[in-house]
Amino acid sequence: MMDSQENAPVISPSEETGNNEVLKEEVAAQPAETPVAQTASPVETEEVQPQKVYETKAEILERVREIAHTDESPQKEEIDYLKTAFYKLHIAEREAKIKAFVDAGGDPEQYQISPDEQEEAFKAEMGIIKEKRAKIFKEQEAEKQENLTKKLAIIDKIKAMITTPEEANKSYQEFKALQQQWREIKNVPAEKANELWRNYQLYVEQFYDMLRLNSIARDEDFKKNLEAKTRLCEIAENLANEDDIISAFHQLQKLHQEYRELGPVAKEQREEIWNRFKAASTVINKRHQQHFEGIRAKEEENLARKTELCEKVEAIAAEENKGSGDWEKHTKQIIELQTEWKTIGFAPQKMNVKIFERFRAACDDFFGRKAEYFKGLKESFKENAEKKRALIEKAKALQDSTEWKSTSDKLIALQKEWKTIGMVPKKLGDQLWEEFLGACNKFFEARKAAGAGQHSDEYDNLAKKREVIEKIKAAAEQAGDDIQEKVQKLVEEYNAIGHVPFKEKDKIYEEYHAVLDKLYKELNITVAKRRLNNFKQNLKQVAERGENALDNERARLFRQYEAIKQEVQTYENNLGFLNVSSKKGNSLIDEMNRKVQKLKDDMNLVREKIKAIDAENKE
Fold first, then answer.
1. In which element (H, E) is residue 29 found?
2. In the chain, which residues have pLDDT < 50?
3. Which of 211, 388, 481, 592 has the fewest CB atoms in 10 Å of its CB?
4. What is the distance between the alpha carbons of residues 545 and 542, in angstroms, rounded to a whole number?
5. Taking Cα atoms as reference points, which of 501, 476, 480 lies closest to residue 490?
6. Which of 379, 373, 375, 385 is nearest to 322 (CA)?
7. 3-state secondary structure 110-167
């Protein structure tokens, strides 16, 4: 720790008069020298060394043991740094172990934090250091009180010398010895330092006022003091080149302590030497101030960045997790934020612990709820695995059956039920699925082998149906008067053919109906035109039957039109209730759609006949 006088404002001694020829007026005319070395803050009172970067907890523990078990005085700043560095490595190591455990498929809830021997040893050594610091502090305080008593005694002795002016020259050597004793006595209580120094300086000046030294002794004294102060100026000026500004600042404090303990110089040189020393001090003080302003600015920036990370983690923790995927996605995001956190330096001392506790609380909340979720999920996995094992046993009981139809239905039902069961861990799920699929495949492969002959008949049926389709295409190209009868017979022939291979069923179905639909459409248009032309040619004959014959025919056609229209509406309503989920249902809908289209074509034909009657009536 620094001298307690260094913690108080530094006051320069007035220059001493050196011999019995210097008058009291000369002493009074000396310039006041007030060193400008700034008062160190409580956290800057210890000698600061460049902080070593520790790579392992073992290195930190070794340094802590060295401090605890040697005569080295533990410095608060280094102790705080060692503690922060140790737990930074300790937390990173623990999080890496947890991540490795989870990545290996472990349940976060089941992870056990094992005791850390290094941490226990670290705590024990830190306890010794704490006791050591407390003891040193107590000893320092006692020493300061003892030093205060000694310095008060020196002041009393100088004060007594002043009361006997005639003995001043004789007591000069004793006075110089008291000054040397004063310099050798160091720390006193900070609250007493300034007052103590002022009293000492007051009586020293009064003693010099009484001195009547000869000019040779005075000049020699001034010369020695000037040399010493010049040396201090040079040292202070060289401190401007010191890379470590903290070290430079503390060295400057010691220089000021030495400067104030030195005696005066010649009157004409006093202001010059003091201004030189003060100028060198100003350079160091300014750099020191800028250094800590930079640290404080950086700490504020770090606090802002850490606050932003806290807000991000809190936002992620507040999001809803609908499943394991969400939990894993958010876990990855939070781990990335934790990694970024480790790259950010310290926040201001008052907020450093608070902001870390806020960040840690948000992380702990998320990972605590995640652990609860996966604990419940584990129970669900266990239940789902038991259900799947039960289905496996049922499938194995059916795998050797030769009742092809009923067993196929049962196994298909088991497969559908399998899909309704929830998840299990991937590795176990793959294993259970392979076991279940093996039992199913064993049955279906046996059924396939038994039905090989049946497949041959199905391919024959496929060839027959394609032959019928080609006949329908040929009939469409001829388009004779008996086309409808031919097509109807071909349709009946097609429907009488048995099953085709399952993989070809949809393809042949679509091909057949595409040809049939095209034929019916063309057939309806052709027949409708022929009928309308025949109707128009016969209108003359209808008109010759009587005056109202055309009107009666028109009324009959109108009734026919309304009846067809009603029938179309009925079909369309029924189509809305049909289920098309099966091929059979789809076939029925296609057939009804063809009927509806034919009825609409008939309606158009009737409408055209009515228009033809209206045109005939106008003529």
1. none
2. 1-48, 213-214, 582-584
3. 481
4. 6
5. 476
6. 373
7. HCCCCCCHHHHHHHHHHHHHHHHHHHHHHHHHHHHHHHHHHHHHHHHHHHHHHCCHHH
- 10 Å CB burial of residue 493 (0-12, 13-18, 19+) is middle
Say if residues 86 and 57 touch (Cβ distance below 8 Å). Answer: yes
Q: How confident is the model over 256-274, as pLDDT tens digits?
A: 988 888 878 888 888 999 9
> What is the C-alpha to C-alpha distance for residues 355 and 353, in angstroms, rounded to an integer?
6
Sole residue written with tokens 């086309």: 483
Q: How many CA atoms lie within 13 A of 444 on its CB side?
A: 13
For residue 360, what are its two tokens? 């840690």
C-alpha closest to that of 189 among 241, 145, 138: 145
Could you count the other beta carbons within 10 Å of the beta carbon of residue 392? Answer: 20
Write the burial class of residue 566 (CB in 10 Å: 0-12 exposed, 13-18 middle, 19+ buried): exposed
Closest CA to 468 of 493, 431, 436: 493
First to last CA, the chain: 131
Can you list the alpha helix ranges (DSSP code H) found in 482-582?
483-496, 502-543, 549-575
Query: What is the distance between the alpha carbons of residues 240 and 332, in angstroms, rounded to a whole number?
Result: 49
Question: Can you list the pairs that 151-157 forms with residues at least 24 positions away whose Cβ atoms lie under 8 Å?
Answer: 151/182, 151/185, 151/188, 151/196, 151/200, 152/196, 154/178, 154/181, 154/182, 154/185, 154/200, 155/196, 155/199, 155/200, 155/203
Rg (CA), the chain: 55
Q: Are 61 and 125 in contact (CB under 8 A)?
A: yes
102 to 18, 99, 327: CA distances (angstroms): 81, 5, 13
Burial class (CB in 10 A: 0-12, 13-18, 19+), 64: buried
Which residues 6+ apart lie within 8 Å of 237 measured at CB? Answer: 280
The DSSP secondary-structure symbol of 240 reads: G
Residues 6+ apart with CB under 8 A from 513: 590
Q: Are 299 and 255 in contact (CB under 8 A)?
A: no
| DSSP string across 465-478 | HHHHHHHHHHHHHH
Measured between alpha carbons, how far is 175 from 158 in angstroms, rounded to an integer?
Answer: 7
Per-residue model confidence as pLDDT tens digits over 64-116: 888 888 888 888 888 888 989 998 888 888 888 888 888 877 777 777 788 88
Longest dimension (CA), the chain: 177
